[in-house]
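Please fill in the sequence for the structure shown.

STRUCTURE ENCODING:
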């Protein structure tokens, strides 16, 4: 699946080194096409609720999905 630049996407797996979890919402900021690799990659920026960047990570398309009407925002606090 191709994702548009600056669209919201939902992470479908944990990325523990950035403190990101399945279900976190981010914004696509770059698309990566690698010759010889069938799956596109995307750089996604994740924010906290006050607008600060939590991380920018590059993931394969299979680690993302588009939001649906069934999705609801939720809040989780990071443990110290």
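FILLED IN BY: designer on duty
SEQUENCE:
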């Amino acid at each position: 699946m191709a994702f548009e630049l600056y669209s919201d996407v939902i992470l479908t797996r944990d990325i523990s080194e950035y403190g990101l979890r399945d279900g976190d919402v981010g914004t696509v900021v770059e698309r990566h096409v690698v010759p010889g690799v069938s799956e596109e990659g995307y750089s996604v920026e994740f924010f906290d609720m006050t607008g600060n960047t939590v991380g920018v990570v590059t993931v394969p398309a299979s680690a993302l999905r588009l939001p649906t009407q069934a999705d609801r925002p939720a809040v989780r606090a990071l443990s110290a």
